[in-house]
Amino acid sequence: MADLTRPPLCDIKRPEEVVKMSMTDNLKFAVLIGLIEVGQVSNREVVNTVLHLLVGGEFDMELNFVVQDAQNVKHMLELLDHCPANLQAEVWSVFIAILKKSVRNLQACTEIGLIEHVLARLQQAEPIVADLLIEMLGVLASYSITVKELKLLFGAMKAVNGKWPRHSAKLLNVLKQMPHRNGPDVFFSFPGRKGSAIVLPPLAKWPYENGFTFSTWFRLDPINSVNIEREKPYLYCFKTSKGVGYTAHFVGNCLVLTSMKVKGKGFQHCVKYEFQPRKWYMIAIVYIYNRWTKSEIKCLVNGQLASSTEMAWLVSTNDPFDKCYVGATPELDEERVFCGQMAAIYLFSEALTTQQICAMHRLGPGYKSQFRFDNECYLNLPDNHKRVSEAKAILSSLSPTPLAPTESTIHRTLVSGSTAATTGAVTADYHPSSFSSPTTAALASPGVALASAAPGAGGESFDLVSVLYDGKLSSAIVFMYNPVATDGQLCLQSAPKGNLSYFVHTPHSLMLQ
Questions:
Q1: Where does the Neurobeachin alpha-solenoid region domain start and stop, copy by copy (predicted)?
Q2: Which domains does the chain have, with CATH numbers?
Q3: What are the backbone dihedrals phi and psi of residue 68, each rounded to the nearest 5 degrees, phi first?
Q4: By the 8 A CB rule, do 100 and 139 touch?
Q5: Nearest one of 104, 164, 173 to 136, comparing CA atoms
Q6: Which tens digit of pLDDT belongs to each residue from 267-288?
Q7: 72, 84, 289, 492: which has the highest count of C-beta atoms within 10 A?
Q8: Is there a contact between 213 and 337 (Cβ–Cβ < 8 Å)?
Q9: b/e per residue, 445-477, with b = 16+ CB within 10 A?
Q10: What would the pLDDT profile of 302-327 be if each residue is shown by its tens digit?
């Protein structure tokens, strides 16, 4: 029997009828291609229909701009092959804008290998379209590019018979944009959908005796700008089955810390800092336990103290913490799941000092190791701290003992007639810095030596390397989840093996999506 609710394909005349059809998206794109070829639709109608199919509803640059199915991007490419240049330019202009607006859109394009498809079409593209394709390649390459895609990019610039192909000079700008990344190279991506979170295994007890610190780099990436006041995405939730424990969630742009001693009754503190969407922040939440006086909570953002408060009561329980989530609550409901990205996630069994947290911030969002080997700091510290460390190494290698006097110095000693004055002259003449190159002399100068001390939050100075790699940070790691150390949906616990284990059994967590 014929489906009376679905009109025959030959009866579809307008694009708005296409989106209402009860069929798969690839067939909808195919029908739209047919309408374009017979010239029954305007450019604006095509653009609106394509965007509607991409985002799974009515497109809006503020409310609905996230690509729902990555395969629809490939269908869009096939459709654009049947479109005139001016229509292609309209679609690509809007598409580039939504790529820049959401990391999830960039990830969707990465999954289908959009760079390879674009490079295959670049040589035949009209100039107005080619410029947009090259701009999009720069956006995509600065997010992620594979070795195969990089080879194709170089191949597109390879000279043939002594002549560069079209657009080769412009493609050089794509290479320039590749290193310009804001944030870590790898991260956990939280889509903001119901049920998406990192679930931790049960902890036999919570490390509160010496205080504890939660630390990570994160980026809020809300699906739209309207529901941000209604939703309460959770950064973490560490609780027992009785509802006792610690949570941190966002209300708008503010972070609220909660400590529940009894279910339904607890202590809350609003961090005095406004977190902007789509911007990376390093956060460290320090819980300081005092046995005889009030405990404290400190929140440091980007290495600086943002907020602190006293906590009148301590969360103390012998029950295992079996409701531990990063990016959600145990209910996993849509209004409380985190939407954005996180880098490596740390929990320390110590209340870290401001100096330690400031030093961790200097390592940058890409750091994902165990603070065990100081040579790794040369890969992560900013260039000014690298130069300082090299200067200290040169200073330590310089011999403090004066060289043996030669015949000429003995002669000057006899002439001067003053042992004290001569000793000073010999030291000045033969001090190693006198014979060093200008660069070495500059490194050995007191002004540069003072620069080796990094300023802390209170203006005091400290040595970054000694603070980071004295063994205290490494031995205090309770758990550390690294976006590189994953196997399917399993996220491997990456703390040093010799550290005390707080877990009931396996320490590895599970990524739900």
A1: 42-178
A2: 15-178 (1.25.10), 188-392+464-512 (2.60.120.200)
A3: -85, -35
A4: yes
A5: 173
A6: 899 998 999 988 999 999 999 9
A7: 72
A8: no
A9: eeebeeebebebeeeeebbbbebbbeeebbbbb
A10: 999 999 998 876 677 888 999 999 99
